[in-house]
Amino acid sequence: MSAHPAASPASSTPPGAATGPVPAAPAGGSLVNGSMFSRPAWIAIAACTLALAVLPLLNLAFPAGHALHISGYTVALIGKFMCYAMAALALDLVWGYTGILSLGHGVFFALGGYAHGMYLMRAIGRDGVYQSTLPDFMVFLDWKTYPWYWNFTDNFWYCMALVVLVPGVLAFIFGYFAFRSRIKGVYFSIITQAMTFAFMLLFFRNDTGFGGNNGFTDFKRILGFTITAPSTKAVLYLVTLAALLGSLLLCRWIVRSKLGRVLQAVRDSESRLMFIGYNPLYFKLFVWTLSAVLCGIAGALYVPQVGIINPSEMSPANSIEMVIWAAVGGRGTLLGPIIGAFSVNGLKSWFTGAFPDLWLYALGLLFILVTLFMPQGMLGLAGKLRKEKP
Hints:
By secondary structure, this protein is mainly alpha-helical. 64% of the residues lie in helices and 3% in strands. The chain has one domain (37-388). The chain contains 13 helices and six strands. The strands form three sheets. The protein has a two-stranded antiparallel ribbon. Strand 4 and strand 5 form a beta hairpin. Helix 5 runs antiparallel to helix 9 (280-306).
């Protein structure tokens, strides 16, 4: 990420690029300002974090039927939403602040999930249906031994390294050739969608060692603890909350730094950024790879809480949903995609229960309405309404 000695984001950036406002999405009104988050935003973040942290404790402290009891289903559902919010935040870093629209982040999310799922499958031991050291799906398909890429996956920390490295290396290689070839805009979006579709087809195959259509499921233990125990689920939930908060703070630090100004200059005027001596390739490659890693971590946290990972997580529709979460909440604000992920998935949970056959139509309509009437998302609308008050 080298630059011309005379050029710096703070002094020589093109007007309206590295230091200018985020177009079409920074309008968080009272929540997002020049210092990234306003005081009310920090108060809201602290209050929401505290409220979310209390939920699993209420599940453990009070028996079912008590007025203060929170069901295990609710804890698992909110935990899943937090994983989605982390993925939406990762997408916002590349789309909202760097102008790179990815329709393939679902593959990074799923790869992180599969890397963790490998460990969880090995941890089942002989407690499977066939009482074999091999997972049930491998016994059923007449596998005799683990494939080479499953070596050492009985080690938790090795698999955690895979959670970071697998999506990170894939993103780095893919991004290097794409960005070096100056592929951008809709063409980049299309090839990312093609990438996730190709991976989905690959993982659906029974001979790849990833469980085929059923994927990985029926997990028993994690680090020796029963994975279905309320206390284990509470710990997984709190780790997910900490990861989401940490990712938010990391992304905020990046976008407020000189690196963040360069990323926004890439989005606003890449040609002028090159003119003053910067090479956008390495900046784009860095943020693209980091976004993939965050998405992979979100996928790894998702799997033990949901209890399954299969190739459907790589469906292009899932990647498009991530874009909708960011758009609905307000891209280029960091908080917006988190709010969007919770809002859209909360609506989805209700809608699929009440009108299961109509959700995709409702999702499409929601995206159209947001594009037409709320181009800056929910945070932008809130800021606009606040300004219009007498």
